[in-house]
């Protein structure tokens, strides 16, 4: 018997899908055969993504969701499950990433970072878990970061939030894995996206990053997508409660 990497016909939710990594992950899941429900704070911001997926022969639909709104999370997840008849895959990608020196961190900045990157991820997991546990099957993939296990300057709130994502992933795996749910996290290094291009196109900054990556290159969205599709497929059925680092060796040092 060969490993089964197929997600054909599976129903997936991707949060924070209007741009960057989330946009690419939604496209990758759709290209692999999943029916993808994409979410963002503005539904209209998802129009281009839904159209692009359809033009490439895939199936996608858009839902408005601010992951800071816990009641809305449950409503949207239940709506997706109702619309499609089930929910097989959830990719918790929505997040904030702006850095700030520790002495400059305000309460508002801290709360925003934690509300989106940690609280939002947990309550999305909870909403998914309620549906998937009833089904007896599901795959949850949380987008963490390499800096969930190593520190970077000006990243105190971001690093803390992503470290928390790793821990909640482990605990939920302990609670749910015996009931058919696999829950894991992926930890990307610096990924080239429209949002990171300005910094990564700056020679000095780019050189600093490359000096820390033994693989010798900046990450791409496809690098992350490969890990997410794998963790969404039956091939990873014995993989749960873990962090899959997509970091070119950054954290091996």
TrEMBL record:
It holds the Pfam family adh_short_C2. The keyword Oxidoreductase applies. Signal peptide: none annotated. The keyword Oxidoreductase applies. Keywords: Oxidoreductase. InterPro entries: KR_dom, NAD(P)-bd_dom_sf, Sc_DH/Rdtase_CS, SDR_fam. GO terms for molecular function: oxidoreductase activity, acting on the CH-OH group of donors, NAD or NADP as acceptor. GO terms for biological process: bile acid metabolic process. Residues 10-189 form the Ketoreductase domain. Belongs to the short-chain dehydrogenases/reductases (SDR) family. PANTHER family: 3-OXOACYL-[ACYL-CARRIER-PROTEIN] REDUCTASE FABG (PTHR42760:SF115), SHORT-CHAIN DEHYDROGENASES/REDUCTASES FAMILY MEMBER (PTHR42760). This is NAD(P)-dependent dehydrogenase (Short-subunit alcohol dehydrogenase family).
